[in-house]
Amino acid sequence: MRLDHVSYAARPDGLDATARALAGELGVDLIDGGAHPRFGTRNRILPLAGGHYIEVVAALEHPSTDDIPYGQAVKACSEQGGGWLGWVVAVDDIGPVEQRLGRPAMAGNRKRPDGFELAWRQVGVCGLVVDPQLPFVVHWQSDPAEHPSKGGDGVELVSIEIAGDPRRVTDWLGQTQNFPLEDVHVSWVDPDGPPGVRSVMFRTEAGLVRL
Questions:
Q1: Distance from C-alpha of 170 to C-alpha of 151, rounded to nearest angstrom
Q2: Helix (H, G, I), strand (E, B) or coil at 80
Q3: Calpha distance 113→64 (Å, rounded)
Q4: Residue 124 has what DSSP assignment?
Q5: Which residue, 14, 57, 58, 98, has most beta carbons within 10 Å?
Q6: Taking CA 125 as the corner, what is the angle to CA 124 and CA 129, rounded to the nearest 5 degrees?
Q7: CATH of the domain spanning 2-152
Q8: Which is nearest to 57 in space by CA: 134, 128, 122, 117?
Q9: How far apart (Å, rounded) are the C-alpha atoms in residues 24 and 18?
């Protein structure tokens, strides 16, 4: 099980300004990701090395935003000032995850400005609302060459800090507390504070950057 991406909700200054600020901190290029028609959101992408990326996301004025858990979570986080929204892990086969968690995967899609439609299946998005320490799980159905990390090089996501209960998170993932992910170090902080992603560490040409 590996990290796919981390999501950052737009700050009060808006999606584009938030994405530009993060891109400037890391020295990466910013890509217009397009819209999630099922979720009532749109995003900007910051591709990274190692098959990872940052999604900077904002809620749209759309009925889906208030009806779908992902749209609700994005809107609520932005209204509270924005910041890290959640983390997402990728698997090659989502069937065992569906069986272990006892819930079916749902379809997700995003249409890029160039017209290409990315598609995936996902489990666990409701956790962004009720228990944001928990990642949701995706299985990409699109051509791997079109993954949102495409074009990312030089900047590497090396670790992520999660506030919450390590046992709760790793039981959810079906992994061990010491090594829940294959490719990124996870550290557990502030078990008594508000749960969720607290910070992410990146290795850049200028050195380590913690956001």
A1: 31
A2: coil
A3: 20
A4: -
A5: 57
A6: 115
A7: 3.10.180.10
A8: 128
A9: 10
